[in-house]
Structure prediction request, 355 residues.
Amino acid sequence: MRRSRLLIGVLTCLVLALGLTACGKGSSESNTENSTEQTVNTTTESSTESTSKVTETEQKETAGSEEETSSATESETSNPESRKDTLVVVFSATGTTKSIAEKIAKYTDADYYEITAAIPYSDEDRDWTNSDSRCTKEQNDTSVRPEISSEKISLDGYTTIYIGYPIWFGQEPRIMDTFVESYNFDGITMIPFCTSGSSGIGSSGKNLAANAGSGNWVDGKRFAGNATEEEIKEWVDSMGNQMLLKINGTEVPVIWESNDSIKELKGIADGGLTIEMSMYGGFEQVGPIGKSIISNDEQTTTSPGDIVLYSGNQIVIFYGSNSWAYTRLGKIDLSEEELRNLLSNGDVTITLTLH
Ligand SMILES: Cc1cc2nc3c(=O)[nH]c(=O)nc-3n(C[C@H](O)[C@H](O)[C@H](O)COP(=O)(O)O)c2cc1C
Prediction:
C-alpha cells in the first residue's frame, strides 16, 4: 500500500516535472517544510479520506521525522465501527505542532485529522517580519477565513477533541477559526494545545471557543517544539476526567479554570454532584457544595456566565454582575440572553459529573 503510494507519488512528480518543469518547491526549504509539503500532497491525493489512525504498528515503523510525518498522515479508510472516542485535530505549517499532535494521538490512542490549507503557506506567506505577508495580513484581520482543503469529517462518536495549532502573532491562525466554525462540538470536550517560539497560548483557546459556539472548551496548553514525551503524557493525564455542568438537565459549555479548587471539585463531582441553587439579587444563582474546598479568593467583578466559589463552600453562577471576593472556577460560554433564559426564571438544579 505504502509502496504503491510512493510509486504514484514518484510518477506524479515525473509528470509534473515534465509538464511544468517544476516538482516541489525550491531547495532552500528546510526538512520540516519539505515534510509539510509532502503532507499536503498526501492529503490531496486521497482527498476523500483524511482521518487516519496513528496505530502502534505505524509508530513502530517510523524512524526519521520525515518518515514519521508521512506515516501519521497517510490516510486510511475510516471505518466508523472502529472509531475511537478521542480525536486529535491539528494544523501545522512547518511540522512542529504536528509532531506534538502525533505524540498525543499515539498516547491517547486517538483518531487523527490534519487541517490542510487549500492554498499552502509558503515561506514568503509565513514571513512575520513582512507587514505585507499573507500571514501578517490574515492575522491582522479577524474576519479572514482561509479555505481548508482536507475533507470534512464526521465527529459522531467523539467525546474528546485535542485541537492543535501554532501561535501566529499571539493568536490562533485564522484557518483554525475556519475549522471551528464548520462544526458542531456539542457534548465534546475541546482541549486546545499549541506550539510557539516563546509566546503562551494567550486567549487563542478562548477565541476558538467563542467562534465555535459549541463544545466544552477547557484551558489549553502551549508546548515548546522540543517538548518531551513525558511532558506531553503528564499534560494528557491531567486533562482526563473533564467536568460536565448541566443546568436543569441541560448541558452547558464551560471553560473551567485550572486551579486547585477545580481539582478538588472534580474529586467531589466524580460520581455526580447535584446542587439545589437559589436565585439571588437578580444577578446570580447560588448553592452549597456540601463541604468546604480549597479557595483563593480575590476581589472580583463578575460578568454573565462566570462560575465562582463563594465562601469556600458555595457555587455561584452569574447571569448578571456583582463585585465580591471570589475564587474563579470557570465561565459558561453562552450569550447573556441564553444565560438569562436558563438562570433568571426561578431556582435551578445543577449537576456536575465527570466524563
Ligand atoms: C506568521 C507567524 C507568526 C508567529 N508569531 C509568533 C508569536 O507571536 N509568538 C511566538 O512565540 N511564536 C510565533 N511564531 C512561531 C511559531 O509559533 C512556531 O514556530 C511554531 O512552533 C510553528 O509551528 P508549526 O511548525 O506547527 O507551524 C510565529 C510564526 C509565524 C509563521
Q: What stands out?
A: Residues 92-98, 126, 128, 135, 166-170, 195-199, 225 surround flavin mononucleotide (CB under 6 Å). The longest helix spans residues 2-20. The radius of gyration is 23 Å.
